[in-house]
Amino acid sequence: MRIEPTYPPRLLNQGVEGDCVVTYGIAADGTPFDVAANCTNSGFVRAAERAVERWRFNPRRVDGVNVARSGRQTTLNFRIEG
Q1: Chain-centre distance of CA 11, in angstroms?
Q2: 34 and 25 in contact (C-beta within 8 Å)?
Q3: How far apart are CA 77 and CA 65, in angstroms?
Q4: What is the pLDDT of residue 59?
Q5: How many of the other CB atoms lie within 10 Å of CB of 58?
Q6: Which residues fall within 8 angstroms of residue 30, CB to CB, at 6 or more apart?
């Protein structure tokens, strides 16, 4: 399940857009861990990290056992619509 980040109100009001590269691992139960965002504007860091922390994944299975994965990465874009 992927939750979209909440746009930081201050940056939205200022018309600031940006991007974040978020790295994380996925635990054996499908929850993210070691979530860290690197953003074009530091004001987006917490929103990006909070969103990914709420994501849920189907765990990876090896020989019938759920295993953790590390080194995952995704990009989140903060854009003002309309």
Answers
A1: 18
A2: yes
A3: 34
A4: 84
A5: 8
A6: 56, 57, 58, 59, 66
Core vs surface per residue 9-45: b (16+ CB within 10 A) or e: eebeeeebebebebebebbeeebbeebebebeeeebb
What is the pTM for the complete model shown?
Answer: 0.91
- Name the band, by pLDDT with cuts 50, 70 and 90, for residue 47: very high
Q: What class does CATH assign to 9-78?
A: alpha beta
The closest alpha carbon to 67, from 37, 26, 33, belongs to 26
Residue 43 DSSP class: G
